[in-house]
Structure prediction request, 371 residues.
Amino acid sequence: MTKKFASRIGTIEISGIRKAFEASSGEFFNLGLGEPDFDTPEHIKIAAMQAIDSGFTSYTVNKGIEELREAISAKFNRDNNFSVSPEEIIVTSGASEALHIAILSVVEKGDEVLMPDPGFVSYSPLTKLAEGKPVGVPLSEDFTMSAEAVKEKITNKTKALIINSPANPTGAVESEENIKALADIANDHHVTIISDEVYEHLIYDGLKHVSPARFSDEVITVNAVSKTYAMTGFRLGYLAARDEYVEQMLKIHQYIQACASSISQKAALAAITGPQECVSEMRSEFKRRRDFAVETLRNMGMEFSVPKGAFYIFPRAKDEKEFVETLRKRKIIVTPGSAFGSRGKNHVRISYATSFENLKRAFEIMKEAVR
Ligand SMILES: Cc1ncc(COP(=O)(O)O)c(C=O)c1O
Prediction:
């Protein structure tokens, strides 16, 4: 890269998901997408339209409107079993911004950040932009993150540990016991946990999502309405942490974002305080597709760990490049596993956030291709 640009930008690359997506044009079965295929529920859209109609289109306070932060505080109590006051919450532009300011606020040059490998594509680049060092934690066979594996990677430079349950790209869900063990290890070593909980409601088989903040104060909890309520384009997320953290993160948020969209804040308020049936309906449909994907891929002889949450399945592929290319020639998009870290290599991420009909047809074509 020329001298014109800051060297820190040279350390990161355009996401592998975007590359796969942009390479496609025309009629494709897209199993590469990381967002719900459902329409945003009607009552949420109405709240957004009412915000515009009533002229609620100006800046809001930096932290986000009081009534939304109160609703999020009540939501943490209702869904996650821990207490945070509205003052300990910042409303952000998606979970993406929340992750960005969480990492920027704790990571200094040379600090190490532990993260799942394979894991969500943003963790490593955001760490590099903060001039920190991403350190991948190898996952267990079922893609959960063991406290022992984390312990092995902790050094005196470790500053943060990112936990993502349910996980992208694997669909793995951490048990309560494991979350507590991870919180204990982090606490023992004065490591801040950044807990990315955007898929908390997309969880199957009677499992329950558990927040590390239940067990430790040194946690920045990141969440969003994006996946839960099919609102990815609203760009509305939030984070919760102790005062001490919030004070620092607010400084960054104030300068890089000012505030989240006023319209999206009203929409999120309707989402969080309104009827929750839409969430269970979407979850049931995702579960139906998950079961179908598991059965079909198994019949194809593919190997994978059964996903317990999110809307992805992460099977092994002998040669991921060849696999992705073979499918692409047949108009099916999947994401190469190495887009999610070095240990994602020779896997592919298949997203079932597409209609059952599309999934069925894509799997029929895939069956032929795999043969
Ligand atoms: C694990 C995870 N965290 C965060 C995000 C970003 O969420 P948002 O759209 O709210 O910025 C995503 C989106 O794909 C994700 O998969």
